[in-house]
Structures are given as structure tokens and as C-alpha cells.
């Protein structure tokens, strides 16, 4: 079944898009159809930029707060996919792209994807949007080039244990 999906996109979708051009062109005229396709491409690039930056800000806030970033990452991927669909000439891809720009539609798609996605980041591991454990590590000590050597120095401040 899954092997037929690429064939669907390679053969059926272009034919359906051509049929869509013919139907819309017959109803509103050829120049208006071309203008509509160009306008949807421009709108796709503008919406991609506008909503993409908002999603990146929400993703950063989730990571800084230690919350599960999976939902925002999925929304970001769906926004990029929606923008690409709007930029591609065609009315069927435009309809799917516009639907993916609507947050409740993305939430519905994330609801179905959540159990199938595992997000691993440098900040910890999150599983499937369930607010999984955020692993904390100790403090990070940043060493310069002169701070680290392979020989042991008993007077080094890194070897001192503060008892206070």
C-alpha cells in the first residue's frame, strides 16, 4: 500500500492539477488563473516566513523551559511543507497547503503523528509529546586552551574542594 504513494504523487497528482487548471481556467479565464497561481506562490512564501519565525520562537521557548518541543517541531515541519505546497503551481496543492497553515489542522495532524515520533535533542529526550523526562546534567565547565593539560597540577583550582 505504502509503495503506491510515490506513484500517486508522480502520476495522479499532476494529472489532477492539470484538470484543475482547465476547470478553473474555463470558469474565470486564463489570465485570472495564471494570476491566481502566481498570487498563491507569493502568499506561500510570505506565510512561510511569517509563521515560520513564530514557530521558531515558540520552539525556543519550549526548549528553554524544558518542555517537550515535539509539537512545535512538527508544526514547523508542517509549515515548511505547507509553504512548499503553496509555491508549487496547482490548486489541489494550494488547498492542502492552506489547510496546513491553519493551527487546528496542524494540531489534528500532530495528534495522529505524536505516537509515531520520537524527538531527541541535546537538552534531553522527549517521547511522543507526553511531556517525557527532561534529563539534567551537572554544570558545564568551559575550559580554555591553557586551562587543560595532561599533567596533574596539585595547585590547580580545578582540583580544590570547597568545604564551605
Descriptive report:
- The chain has 164 residues and is mainly α.
- It has one domain.
- The protein has 5 helices and 2 strands.
- It has helices at residues 4-28, 30-65, 70-87, 91-100, 103-113, and strands at 118-121, 124-127.
- A two-stranded antiparallel sheet has the order 1-2.
- Strand 1 (118-121) and strand 2 form a beta hairpin.
- Helix 1 packs across helix 2, helix 2 runs antiparallel to helix 3 and helix 3 runs antiparallel to helix 4.
- The radius of gyration is 25 Å and the shape is elongated.
- The model is unreliable at 124-134 (pLDDT under 50).
Give a short summary of the structure.
This protein has helices at residues 4-28, 30-65, 70-87, 91-100, 103-113, and strands at 118-121, 124-127. A two-stranded antiparallel sheet has the order 1-2.
Layout of SSEs?
Elements lengths: L3 H25 L1 H36 L4 H18 L3 H10 L2 H11 L4 E4 L2 E4 L37
Helix pairs in contact: 1-2, 2-3, 3-4, 3-5
Task: Quickly count the helices.
Answer: 5
Distance between the termini: 67 Å
Low-pLDDT residue intervals, each spanning 5 or more residues:
124-134
How many domains is the backbone divided into?
Answer: 1
Order of helices and strands: HHHHHEE
Proportion of β residues? under 5%
Rg on CA atoms, Å:
25 Å
Overall mean pLDDT:
79
**What is the tally of beta strands?**
2
Q: In one word, what is the shape?
A: elongated
Fraction in helix: 55-70%
Amino acid at each position: 500500500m505504502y509503495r503506491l504513494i510515490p506513484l500517486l504523487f508522480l502520476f495522479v497528482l499532476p494529472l489532477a492539477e492539470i484538470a484543475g487548471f482547465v476547470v478553473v481556467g474555463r470558469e474565470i479565464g486564463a489570465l485570472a488563473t495564471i494570476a491566481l497561481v502566481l498570487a498563491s506562490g507569493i502568499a506561500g512564501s510570505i506565510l512561510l516566513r511569517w509563521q515560520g519565525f513564530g514557530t521558531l520562537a515558540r520552539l525556543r521557548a519550549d526548549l528553554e523551559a524544558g518542555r517537550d518541543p515535539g509539537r512545535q517541531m512538527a508544526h514547523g515541519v508542517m509549515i515548511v511543507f505547507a509553504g512548499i505546497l503553496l509555491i508549487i503551481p496547482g490548486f489541489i496543492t494550494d488547498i492542502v497547503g492552506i489547510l496546513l497553515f491553519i493551527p487546528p489542522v496542524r494540531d489534528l495532524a500532530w495528534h495522529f503523528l505524536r505516537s509515531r515520533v520520537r524527538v531527541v535533542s541535546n537538552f534531553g529526550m522527549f517521547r511522543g509529546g507526553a511531556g517525557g523526562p527532561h534529563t539534567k546534567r551537572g554544570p558545564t565547565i568551559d575550559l580554555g586552551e591553557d586551562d587543560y593539560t595532561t599533567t596533574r597540577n596539585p595547585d590547580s583550582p580545578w582540583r580544590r574542594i570547597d568545604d564551605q
